């Protein structure tokens, strides 16, 4: 008999519970990267109460498995907890099949680079409003980035105008994000482990996760239906003739756009020379008498490098598809057949606990943080250096573009072109009109913040002191009427 391939290496596990005790609750992407070095492996295997989890720390492995062997690696786990909440309508949770193909096709067709051109005007307009609101109330800048990202998605998909951070739609989207991030141990709640409990009536209150899931049904329903109802009412009033095929995931996926903008603000505080260079490029190309538009994008190569460096330096979705299996960010890929790769078994399997046996095909998670901080790909990967992308023919180091910030394979983010353009519009308008700098500490000294990033729904820069001022009176005049 052929000897079975071994599982990929990983940290030592405890009996029965496996690696549950070892899973970090803060910045798991960093721990997985350290484990890779400690156990001398690019592919890590963990077991959480029998649920297999595979972490890919190298670009070549993520591409080889999730992209090239996409037919085996494109399914999503069945999360009964989320289904109970009403997330069933979300493309993110669909398994490959006719409905998945239909929804993906509608999604990708609406957000091709060519289609995204028609949304640029709305993006630039909203970016101007973001800069004006931040200019007026700099301490609110983080909340305003969330309002901006929500505004772009709602404006484009439903024709809804969002009025700043206190808008009811921003509140609804925040409630949804909150409901996801408080949903706890994804895939291992009682409802997931004992799916038959979903048939229990409402008065049966002994399963807390079931009660919690059911209490969230109204907010998830509202998120799915409210914007759609608005569009329908507008169509009856004939002011709007069509709506994009769009769904809830985009509504709450605005968080990754906002998180990337928060990482930009942090990077500018830490790298004043980069900001100065970007200011100089925009001033030379756009001048000071108008705001930048997408027509300027090809003429602003340094701003483009800043954008790519943001995705590389700290991706807002550092585990490409899942921040932490025990504290949801997004939903991982799963492997649907036993596979063999580099001499290792990538197992599909059943998970047996004392109580039940359930479908637990291994989660496969690409660690895009490790991939983009890989010393074999980048010199001094921790430094924020947009010039690293300058081609070798122009005297630069010709570093490769970041990989995995939008995921991989058949589940790659269908909103990637829209999301990237939204981040570009926000950063170019901010650079044209605002100056971001270090704040003074209690001794009156300029102090550089210690970069810290959240773990959770998406990874944004954690609140840090900074000063944001208008670059000139002219900048204010350009924004005032938006
Ligand atoms: C900078 C902004 C964004 C980033 C960094 C981002 C990142 C990601 C990542 C990493 C995934 C997981 C892919 C995988 O599982 O391999 C994903 C999935 C997804 N994203 Fe985005 N995203 C962004 C913006 C958007 C926007 C604006 C939309 C909607 C218009 C959107 C819609 C989706 C959907 C529907 C999925 C699930 C796809 C599926 O499961 O088939 N995203 N995104």
TrEMBL record:
Keywords carried by this UniProt record: Heme, Iron, Metal-binding, Monooxygenase, Oxidoreductase, Signal
Alphabetical list of CDD domains matching this protein: CYP64-like
Keyword Oxidoreductase: yes
Gene3D superfamilies the UniProt entry points to: Cytochrome P450 (1.10.630.10)
The protein's required cofactors: heme
InterPro entries: Cyt_P450, Cyt_P450_CS, Cyt_P450_E_grp-I, Cyt_P450_sf, Cytochrome_P450_fung
Residues given in the record as heme binding sites: 413
GO MF annotations in UniProt: heme binding; iron ion binding; monooxygenase activity; oxidoreductase activity, acting on paired donors, with incorporation or reduction of molecular oxygen
KW Metal-binding (keyword) present: yes
Residues annotated as transmembrane: none
Protein family according to the UniProt entry: Belongs to the cytochrome P450 family.
Name used for this protein in its record: Cytochrome P450
């Amino acid at each position: 008999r052929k000897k079975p391939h071994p599982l990929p290496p990983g940290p030592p596990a405890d009996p029965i519970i496996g690696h549950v005790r070892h899973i970090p609750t803060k910045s798991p992407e960093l721990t997985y990267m350290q484990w890779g070095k400690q156990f001398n492996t690019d592919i890590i295997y963990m077991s959480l109460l029998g649920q297999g989890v595979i972490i890919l720390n190298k670009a070549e492995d993520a591409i080889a498995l999730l992209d090239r062997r996409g037919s085996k690696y494109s399914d999503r786990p069945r999360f009964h907890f989320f289904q109970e909440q009403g997330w069933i309508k979300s493309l993110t949770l669909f398994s490959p099949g006719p409905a998945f193909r239909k929804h993906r096709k509608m999604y990708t067709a609406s957000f091709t680079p060519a289609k995204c051109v028609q949304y640029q005007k709305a993006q630039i307009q909203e970016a101007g409003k973001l800069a004006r609101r931040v200019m007026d109330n700099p301490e609110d800048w983080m909340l305003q980035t969330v309002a901006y990202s929500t505004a772009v998605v709602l404006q484009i998909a439903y024709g809804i105008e969002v009025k700043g951070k206190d808008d009811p739609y921003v509140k609804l989207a925040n409630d949804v994000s909150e409901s996801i991030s408080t949903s706890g141990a994804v895939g291992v709640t009682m409802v997931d482990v004992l799916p038959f409990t979903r048939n229990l009536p409402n008065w049966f209150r002994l399963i807390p996760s079931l009660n919690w899931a059911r209490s969230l049904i109204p907010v998830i329903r509202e998120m799915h239906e409210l914007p759609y109802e608005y569009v329908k009412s507008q169509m009856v009033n004939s002011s709007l003739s069509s709506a994009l095929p769009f769904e809830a995931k985009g509504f709450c996926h605005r968080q990754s756009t906002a998180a990337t903008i928060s990482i930009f603000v942090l990077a500018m505080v830490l790298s004043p020379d980069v900001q100065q260079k970007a200011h100089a490029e925009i001033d030379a190309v756009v001048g000071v008498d108008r705001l930048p538009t997408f027509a300027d994008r090809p003429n602003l190569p340094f701003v483009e490098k800043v954008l790519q460096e943001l995705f590389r330096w700290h991706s807002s979705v550092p585990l490409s598809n899942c921040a932490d299996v025990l504290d949801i960010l997004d939903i991982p890929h799963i492997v649907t057949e036993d596979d063999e790769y580099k001499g290792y078994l990538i197992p599909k399997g059943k998970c047996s606990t004392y109580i039940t046996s359930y479908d637990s095909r291994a989660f496969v998670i690409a660690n895009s943080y490790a991939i983009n901080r890989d010393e074999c790909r980048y010199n001094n990967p921790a430094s924020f250096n947009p010039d690293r992308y300058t081609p070798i023919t122009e005297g630069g180091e010709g570093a490769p573009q970041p990989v995995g910030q939008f995921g991989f394979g058949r589940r790659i983010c269908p909103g990637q072109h829209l999301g990237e353009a939204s981040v570009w519009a926000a950063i170019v308008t901010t650079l044209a009109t605002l100056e971001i700098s270090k704040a003074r500490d209690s001794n009156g000294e300029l102090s550089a913040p210690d970069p810290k990033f959240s773990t959770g729904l998406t990874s944004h820069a954690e609140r840090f002191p900074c000063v944001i001022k208008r670059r000139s009176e002219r900048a204010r005049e350009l924004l005032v009427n938006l």
